[in-house]
């Protein structure tokens, strides 16, 4: 009896105190996630400026509770002051290479909350399939999904994801990647993609979105009008990566347009032409945007508050890229060293852990432009049968 | 083309065409289930399954296959798997009875129409296949026996109306044939169950086709092991190499030495009771799968020392024991008393003719530090060659296990360190460097070999790494025809350092399927594009 630990009075309540009201809003890049947790004899107090901080604190509190060999739950006297180093801590899931059933997405959101992630980057459509059920363009998923009856996200599915995420303090940033990565858009939107040519004849194959047609921009406006209304977050990810110029080059009408515009043979200028118009459209819808690094690399004119997503994986390259992006005054998001789909044998979590996002050449003002990073789980080799053990 | 042949000649023509296949093939293939008979000359009208059959892709690819374009329809409410009239197996063969139910479920399980029973249905659009008759030809079909290395797994399948016939020498071939038949049955766009008229003559290239699971680094719940046995059967694997204990934990509950798991298991509920072990063995047997347990000694035995004091070698620093332990102590008589009793139990619990004795990665440093062991070395005249001590130990274990009429499998070090093996000891080659040379050495010395080296599937990597497993050609080593015959097969290994029930199945499958086809199908089945097409279908089917 003399050696037993002294048990404090049994704790019956964790008091949660929030100073800024508002339970019904959505989390944003500026949300305050800080909290204080005090566990002492006779009182347990979690205080936070906002509900988002309270969620983080509840997770921490739940991790402090232990159970001894007699089955008694206990908690040590503790004092914690906590806040995130980076405001954007994201996870990318790819539901185009393989469809992920709703339960897989919701389960992922749960585990994100256990790990204090706060952004779900939903790479929802891409070349292989278009599972997003659009109300403005129902044909997109009807013709572009792997199976239009079963492998789609209905409007109510999307609402479920957004609300499930919100309850965990997680933002949902959808990515509708254009002008490349859009093959699945073609069947449901005839005339949207560029017809490729082989020896003066259309080959039957299609390439990126056709940037020279007015119809393209009408379509894009309507689609992003819908996306802006469906997804409440201020930001939309617009993609812009890996645009293959071969098809554009093969198309005579596009070549003619290049001449007209004085772009010569520089197809990056055509890509910029498209992207700039897209950014304008999205801006006018009152949304901010995130783009993959090519948009910056190809010198597209973007707004000052654009977030550049650094993903190209060569070690020196990404650090150089982080320096370049921030030196140019843009915010940066880091994913390059965190492509978790690239599995390898053994404890590869250590490589991911050792990454220091601010380890690049730059002045403190530049470093301040790094808003965070994202772990990416691309779906080429991932579906519901292996997502969870591969990611966590 | 093949289509014209089928339509023009009809059934008689089909069978006649088949007789063109050397009768030798039928007699040798079926009767002896020869460990590694080659396919024999393929007549011109045999063709790749994947090319001819739009649905129903096969994995692994049979040795000889002929399909016609003519399709037959199956009605789930009426179709039955039955014993053929001339079969030596009948209603008393519970192994086949269970297999019939299992395969019916695999084929029609999701169909609502199966519950409609035998009410007369409308006239089918296509000729109906109403049953598959299974005919076992050997006088003793083997319903109640255990599969072994020499079992016959060959089968001959004829799919034509009104009844398909599956002939096999022993029940093991019937199990393989049922799996193939279930792969031939496919659904069309309208939900009808169809099968193309076909004739298949099949047998495995290698007789030992195994999967190694490690239940010591991480405990594997029974469900995981049983699910894995199901997956093995889908891929015609026939050996479950159960690496059941190792350094980290001892989950095997021994009757003679209950302390081994009491003290050595991760916890009291993370064990395999005798009932669990019997369940695994029987579940495997019903799928034609042998269970070869591995009790790896003298190294890899840390967990044994918890429940069996005095078994492991105490390590010394100078003249003082450090408190830590090394491999099994080969110098004490009590070691061999223990092993004699322990392997008596193992020999009676596990019915397979073989036990795997391990013998890999023995670290000599603890032995070297122990004064009694050093003394023993002197007495035996081993000098400072600790490999001789290791061999001394292993030889005595081989003798013990032999005395219980069990054959032994050992890891390659046992052979490399020149222990004296029994003539029928099987050597498992696992070291990746120069494994072809090792195969030459082992078979050159007259021992049977099992290849694992290129198939360590725990070494995951990004992308389609199944291709590199598929591309291995086991017989690519310098050696005579006689030597090549001694390579009895191979094993895909899933070591457990980073594997448990949460990730075993997606990590092992369908990557192990590549190894399954390499070990079953003919040597010339190497086309990666064709394999990809069939493997993608097969994988979805396995789900």
Automatic annotation (TrEMBL), chain A:
Residues in the signal sequence: none
Residues covered by the Beta-hexosaminidase eukaryotic type N-terminal domain: 28-64
GO molecular function, one term: beta-N-acetylhexosaminidase activity
Domain of life: Eukaryota
Reaction catalyzed: Hydrolysis of terminal non-reducing N-acetyl-D-hexosamine residues in N-acetyl-beta-D-hexosaminides; beta-D-GalNAc-(1->4)-alpha-L-IdoA-(1->3)-beta-D-GalNAc-4-sulfate-(1->4)-alpha-L-IdoA-(1->3)-D-GalNAc-4-sulfate + H2O = alpha-L-IdoA-(1->3)-beta-D-GalNAc-4-sulfate-(1->4)-alpha-L-IdoA-(1->3)-D-GalNAc-4-sulfate + N-acetyl-D-galactosamine; a ganglioside GM2 (d18:1(4E)) + H2O = a ganglioside GM3 (d18:1(4E)) + N-acetyl-beta-D-galactosamine; a ganglioside GM2 + H2O = a ganglioside GM3 + N-acetyl-beta-D-galactosamine
Keyword Nucleotide-binding among UniProt keywords: no
Location of the Glycoside hydrolase family 20 catalytic domain: 86-392
Entry annotated with the keyword Acyltransferase: no
Single biological process term from Gene Ontology: ganglioside catabolic process
Function description: Hydrolyzes the non-reducing end N-acetyl-D-hexosamine and/or sulfated N-acetyl-D-hexosamine of glycoconjugates, such as the oligosaccharide moieties from proteins and neutral glycolipids, or from certain mucopolysaccharides. The isozyme S is as active as the isozyme A on the anionic bis-sulfated glycans, the chondroitin-6-sulfate trisaccharide (C6S-3), and the dermatan sulfate pentasaccharide, and the sulfated glycosphingolipid SM2. The isozyme B does not hydrolyze each of these substrates, however hydrolyzes efficiently neutral oligosaccharide.
Protein name: Beta-hexosaminidase subunit alpha
Organism listed in the record: Xiphorhynchus elegans (elegant woodcreeper)
TrEMBL record, chain B:
UniProt xrefs under SUPFAM superfamilies: (Trans)glycosidases, beta-N-acetylhexosaminidase-like domain
MF annotations from Gene Ontology: beta-N-acetylhexosaminidase activity
Catalytic activity: N-acetyl-beta-D-galactosaminyl-(1->4)-beta-D-3-sulfogalactosyl-(1->4)-beta-D-glucosyl-(1<->1')-ceramide + H2O = a beta-D-3-sulfogalactosyl-(1->4)-beta-D-glucosyl-(1<->1')-ceramide + N-acetyl-beta-D-galactosamine; Hydrolysis of terminal non-reducing N-acetyl-D-hexosamine residues in N-acetyl-beta-D-hexosaminides; N-acetyl-beta-D-6-sulfogalactosaminyl-(1->4)-alpha-L-iduronyl-(1->3)-N-acetyl-D-6-sulfogalactosamine + H2O = alpha-L-iduronyl-(1->3)-N-acetyl-D-6-sulfogalactosamine + N-acetyl-D-6-sulfogalactosamine; beta-D-GalNAc-(1->4)-alpha-L-IdoA-(1->3)-beta-D-GalNAc-4-sulfate-(1->4)-alpha-L-IdoA-(1->3)-D-GalNAc-4-sulfate + H2O = alpha-L-IdoA-(1->3)-beta-D-GalNAc-4-sulfate-(1->4)-alpha-L-IdoA-(1->3)-D-GalNAc-4-sulfate + N-acetyl-D-galactosamine
GO cellular component, one term: membrane
Signal peptide range: 1-26
GO biological process, one term: carbohydrate metabolic process
Pfam families documented for this protein: Glyco_hydro_20, Glycohydro_20b2
This protein's UniProt keywords: Cytoplasmic vesicle, Disulfide bond, Glycoprotein, Glycosidase, Hydrolase, Lipid metabolism, Lysosome, Signal
Record localization: Cytoplasmic vesicle, Secretory vesicle, Cortical granule; Lysosome
First-listed, main subcellular location of the protein, grouped into a coarse class: cytoplasm
Family per record: Belongs to the glycosyl hydrolase 20 family.
Assembly mode: There are 3 forms of beta-hexosaminidase: hexosaminidase A is a heterodimer composed of one subunit alpha and one subunit beta (chain A and B); hexosaminidase B is a homodimer of two beta subunits (two chains A and B); hexosaminidase S is a homodimer of two alpha subunits. The composition of the dimer (isozyme A versus isozyme S) has a significant effect on the substrate specificity of the alpha subunit active site.
Protein name: Beta-hexosaminidase subunit beta
Lineage: Eukaryota, Metazoa, Chordata, Craniata, Vertebrata
């Amino acid at each position: 009896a003399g050696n037993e630990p002294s048990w404090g009075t049994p704790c019956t309540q964790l008091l949660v105190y929030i100073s800024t009201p508002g339970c019904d809003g959505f989390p944003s890049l500026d949300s305050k996630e800080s909290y204080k947790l005090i566990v002492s004899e006779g009182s347990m107090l979690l205080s936070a400026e906002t509900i988002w901080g309270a969620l983080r604190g509840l997770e921490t509190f739940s991790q402090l509770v232990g159970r001894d060999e007699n089955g008694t739950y206990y908690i040590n006297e503790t004092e914690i002051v906590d806040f995130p180093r980076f405001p954007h801590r994201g996870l990318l899931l790819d539901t185009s290479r393989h469809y992920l059933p709703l339960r897989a997405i919701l389960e992922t959101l749960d585990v994100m909350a256990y790990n204090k992630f706060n952004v779900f980057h939903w790479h929802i459509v891409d070349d292989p399939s278009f599972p997003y059920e659009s109300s403005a363009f129902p044909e997109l998923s009807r013709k572009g999904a792997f199976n239009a009856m079963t492998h789609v996200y209905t409007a109510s599915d999307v609402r479920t994801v957004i609300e499930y995420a919100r309850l965990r303090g997680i933002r949902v940033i959808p990515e509708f990647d254009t002008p490349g990565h859009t093959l699945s858009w073609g069947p449901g939107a005839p005339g949207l993609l560029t017809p490729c040519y082989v020896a003066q004849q259309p080959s039957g194959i299609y390439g990126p979105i056709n940037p020279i047609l007015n119809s393209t921009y009408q379509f894009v406006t309507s689609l992003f009008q819908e996306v802006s209304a469906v997804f409440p977050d201020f930001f939309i990810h617009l993609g812009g990566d890996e645009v293959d110029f071969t098809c554009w080059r093969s198309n005579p009408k596009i070549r003619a347009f290049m001449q007209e515009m004085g772009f010569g043979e520089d197809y990056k200028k055509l890509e910029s032409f498209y992207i700039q118009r897209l950014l304008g459209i999205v801006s006018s819808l009152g949304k901010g945007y995130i783009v993959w690094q090519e948009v910056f690399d190809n010198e597209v004119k973007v707004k000052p508050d654009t977030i550049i997503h650094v993903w190209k994986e060569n070690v020196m390259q990404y650090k150089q890229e982080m320096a370049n992006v921030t030196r140019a005054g843009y915010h940066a998001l880091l994913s390059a060293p965190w492509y978790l789909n690239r599995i390898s044998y053994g404890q590869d979590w250590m490589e991911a852990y050792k990454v220091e996002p601010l380890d690049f050449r730059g002045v403190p003002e530049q470093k301040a432009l790094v808003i965070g990073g994202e772990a990416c789980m691309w779906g080429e080799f991932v579906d519901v049968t292996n997502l969870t053990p591969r990611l966590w | 083309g093949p289509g014209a042949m089928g339509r023009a000649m009809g059934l008689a023509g089909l069978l006649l065409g088949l007789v063109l296949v050397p009768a030798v093939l039928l007699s040798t293939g079926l009767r002896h289930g020869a460990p590694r008979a080659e396919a024999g000359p393929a007549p011109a009208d045999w063709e790749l399954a994947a090319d001819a059959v739009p649905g129903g892709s096969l994995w692994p690819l049979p040795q000889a296959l002929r399909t016609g374009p003519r399709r037959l329809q199956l009605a789930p409410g009426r179709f039955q798997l039955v014993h053929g009239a001339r079969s030596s197996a009948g209603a008393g063969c519970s192994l086949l009875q269970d297999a019939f139910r299992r395969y019916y479920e695999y084929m029609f399980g999701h169909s609502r129409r199966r519950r409609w029973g035998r009410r007369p249905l409308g006239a089918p659009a296509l000729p109906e296949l109403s049953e598959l008759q299974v005919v076992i030809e050997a006088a003793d079909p083997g319903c109640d026996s255990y599969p072994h290395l020499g079992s016959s797994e060959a089968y001959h399948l004829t799919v034509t109306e009104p009844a398909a016939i599956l002939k096999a020498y022993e029940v093991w071939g019937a199990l393989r044939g049922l799996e193939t038949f279930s792969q031939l049955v496919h659904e069309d766009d309208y939900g009808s169950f169809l099968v193309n008229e076909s004739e298949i003559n099949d047998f495995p290239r290698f007789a030992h086709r195994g999967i190694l699971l490690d239940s010591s680094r991480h405990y594997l719940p029974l469900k995981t092991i049983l699910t894995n046995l199901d997956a093995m059967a889908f891929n015609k694997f026939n050996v479950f190499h159960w690496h059941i204990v190792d350094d980290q934990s001892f989950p095997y509950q021994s009757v003679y030495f209950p302390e081994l798991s009491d003290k050595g298991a991760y916890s009291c509920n993370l064990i395999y009771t005798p009932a669990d072990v019997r369940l695994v063995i029987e579940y495997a047997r019903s799928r034609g799968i042998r269970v070869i347990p591995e009790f790896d000694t003298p190294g890899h035995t840390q967990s044994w020392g918890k429940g069996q004091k005095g078994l492991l070698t105490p390590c010394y620093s100078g003249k003082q024991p450090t408190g830590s332990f090394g491999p099994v102590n080969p110098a004490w008589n009590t070691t061999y008393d223990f092993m004699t009793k322990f392997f008596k139990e193992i020999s009676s619990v596990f019915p397979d003719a073989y036990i795997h004795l391990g013998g890999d990665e023995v670290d000599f440093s603890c032995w070297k530090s122990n004064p009694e062991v050093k003394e023993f070395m002197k007495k035996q005249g081993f000098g400072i060659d600790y490999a001789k001590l290791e061999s001394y130990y292993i030889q005595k274990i081989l003798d013990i296990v032999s005395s219980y009429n069990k054959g032994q499998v050992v890891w390659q070090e046992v052979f490399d360190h020149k222990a004296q093996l029994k003539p029928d000891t099987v050597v498992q080659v696992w070291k990746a460097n120069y494994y072809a040379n090792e195969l030459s050495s082992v078979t050159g010395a007259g021992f049977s070999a099992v290849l694992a080296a290129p198939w360590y599937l725990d070494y995951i990597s990004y992308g389609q790494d199944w291709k590199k497993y598929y591309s291995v050609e086991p017989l690519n080593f310098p050696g005579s025809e006689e030597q090549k015959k001694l390579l009895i097969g191979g094993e895909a290994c899933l070591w457990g350092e980073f594997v448990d029930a949460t990730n075993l199945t997606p990590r092992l499958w369908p990557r192990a399927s590549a190894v399954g086809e390499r070990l079953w199908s003919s040597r010339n089945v190497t086309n990666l594009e064709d394999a990809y097409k069939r493997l993608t279908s097969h994988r979805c089917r396995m789900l």
